[in-house]
């Protein structure tokens, strides 16, 4: 059994109600639901939420909400792994036995069914516990700078001041879209970032973290530009 779990709590503070706030014509979470359904990978696509309005929206667009997430997993400090573990435990308690479980973030409008399928192929084709979306940094992280308390500038790695960009190792970061994992890994609480995980590489133009209103606006511009390109 393969399951998609879309975590979507109701208590977002920086962008109130962001999981169901309209984004390019649809509640934000709907883009993730539709990608999961379009992938054809799953026996069940569920939303894990503590919020009745989010649950109603999720059901309307084709996802299941078989339980309401408990309060202790719905505050600002609830991590992804415990939330997915809770969902896996629910299925087991109800007589199901998930083998692969994919966490898909509710605020990932650029996620595609094709990438989700590719993630499953990578997970099942490798000796690994997780396969998740990553992308490369646009600028060498070795040349990053900080602003000091005195409002001055200093490098994190001053030894690389004269190193050419092309001579620096490329660095990658979590794309914040989806995380395939074997059910046992979620149940054991294994951390996502480690040698037991394999990357699913995405192009930078299809990755946008959405935590602030500025992020939201930028994502909207990118999304509309991509749609216009497809429609040409």
Automatic annotation (TrEMBL):
<dbReference type="GO" id="GO:0008781">
    <property type="term" value="F:N-acylneuraminate cytidylyltransferase activity"/>
</dbReference>
<dbReference type="InterPro" id="IPR020039">
    <property type="entry name" value="PseF"/>
</dbReference>
<dbReference type="InterPro" id="IPR050793">
    <property type="entry name" value="CMP-NeuNAc_synthase"/>
</dbReference>
<keyword id="KW-0808">Transferase</keyword>
<dbReference type="Pfam" id="PF02348">
    <property type="entry name" value="CTP_transf_3"/>
</dbReference>
<keyword id="KW-0548">Nucleotidyltransferase</keyword>
<dbReference type="InterPro" id="IPR029044">
    <property type="entry name" value="Nucleotide-diphossugar_trans"/>
</dbReference>
<protein>
    <submittedName>
        <fullName>N-acylneuraminate cytidylyltransferase</fullName>
        <ecNumber>2.7.7.81</ecNumber>
    </submittedName>
</protein>
<dbReference type="InterPro" id="IPR003329">
    <property type="entry name" value="Cytidylyl_trans"/>
</dbReference>
